[in-house]
């Protein structure tokens, strides 16, 4: 049990990451005000309802919409900490970038912070950002293969069409910092996770990480994968980071949350499909960059992204998260195989993947 119980609001609580945050907060003895877009969507909230059965007095569910002003007022009452995780992410370019990506990220953040400004009990806001708010493309880092992305780095891209997701996360953090500077009651801490993998607490397959695993397992990349470096981190570590950022007193600023940086081929070599009775359609080699660029639209990549990221090593300095948040990172082999085990256990793998 904590020294004293906090009331903590978590937005987007039915999501892949937020579900783990809610779970850890409850197990640490705190009371959670969890917001979801639609309480009537039983498929998306049933795992939260199961948590309510275990923690009937400490988990409260509220309905809130990122694009509706004042939507978070009720859920935020009496909370001292707000954890804002709700923000869309697409592996492929959305059809309507402004409506599906930018507006939820920017207006959603501003609407949450407008409620924070009206709620006098709130003294800290934790914003789930991303490592991509620290750089736009791997090619921006430079030719030094030993360079690592640092918390002080900034994504200076001002063109929404050039990596829309990175733009949305960068601008959301920027407007949040602008709002924080206007007052002195609440402080802002931003967490910047790499690509998140690991087991889910829900039986949903709409998380981006699940889509990537499906593509590795279903033969999409059987003839080879792009030579692409990906910063990876376990969803449980990212959730733990949010909890620590919410309850520890001596934390501030930005934190990169990343276990390690791996090429896609290295990730595929961590997976043991035979262990789970899965057909082995994993890639065995890397394809040339020119071919990756040519087939990009058919494998869920944007050609501009291929041009500026494939073939460029990139690494991340997560030393602050270890020293100040006390994170001990899961090994990547455990992260990916635990994720696949969860998909197998919950019978979520498509028939085409199973033997």
TrEMBL record:
Which Pfam families is this protein grouped with? 3Beta_HSD
Coiled-coil regions in this chain? none
List the GO molecular function terms. oxidoreductase activity, acting on the CH-OH group of donors, NAD or NADP as acceptor
The UniProt entry, under InterPro entries, shows:
3Beta_OHSteriod_DH/Estase, NAD(P)-bd_dom_sf, NAD(P)_dehydrat-like
Q: Which UniProt keywords apply?
A: Oxidoreductase
Highest taxon, organism lineage: Bacteria
GO BP terms: namely: steroid biosynthetic process
Chain ranges of the 3-beta hydroxysteroid dehydrogenase/isomerase domain: 9-246
Name of the protein this chain belongs to: NAD-dependent epimerase/dehydratase family protein
């Amino acid at each position: 049990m904590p020294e004293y119980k906090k009331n903590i609001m978590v937005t987007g609580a039915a999501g892949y990451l937020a579900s783990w945050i809610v779970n850890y907060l409850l197990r640490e003895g705190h009371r959670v005000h969890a917001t979801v877009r639609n309480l009537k969507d039983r498929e998306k909230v049933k795992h939260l309802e199961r948590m309510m059965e275990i923690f009937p007095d400490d988990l409260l569910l509220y309905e809130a919409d990122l694009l509706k002003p004042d939507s978070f007022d009720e859920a935020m009452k009496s909370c001292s900490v707000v954890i804002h995780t709700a923000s869309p992410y697409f592996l492929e370019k959305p059809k309507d970038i402004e409506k599906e990506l930018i507006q939820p990220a920017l207006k959603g953040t501003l609407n949450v912070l407008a409620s924070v400004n009206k709620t006098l009990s709130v003294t800290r806001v934790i914003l789930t950002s991303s490592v991509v708010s620290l750089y736009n493309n791997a090619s921006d880092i430079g030719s030094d293969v030993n360079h690592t992305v640092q918390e002080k780095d900034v994504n200076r891209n001002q063109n929404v069409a050039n990596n829309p997701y990175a733009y949305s996360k960068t601008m959301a953090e920027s407007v949040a910092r602008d709002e924080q500077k206007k007052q002195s009651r609440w402080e802002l801490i931003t967490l910047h996770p790499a690509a998140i993998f690991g087991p889910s607490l829900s039986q949903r397959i709409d998380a981006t990480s699940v889509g990537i695993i499906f593509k590795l397992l279903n033969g999409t990349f059987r003839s080879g994968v792009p030579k692409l470096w990906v910063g990876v981190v376990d969803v449980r570590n990212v959730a733990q980071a949010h909890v620590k950022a919410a309850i520890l007193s001596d934390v501030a600023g930005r934190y990169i949350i990343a276990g390690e940086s791996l090429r896609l081929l290295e990730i595929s070599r961590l997976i043991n499909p035979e262990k789970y009775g899965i057909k082995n359609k994993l890639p065995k080699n890397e394809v040339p960059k020119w071919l990756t660029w040519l087939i990009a639209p058919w494998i869920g990549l944007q050609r501009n992204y291929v041009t500026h990221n494939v073939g460029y090593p990139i690494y991340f300095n997560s030393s602050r998260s270890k020293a100040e948040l006390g994170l001990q990172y899961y090994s990547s082999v455990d992260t990916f195989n635990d994720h696949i085990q969860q998909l197998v256990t919950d019978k979520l793998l498509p028939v085409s993947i199973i033997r």
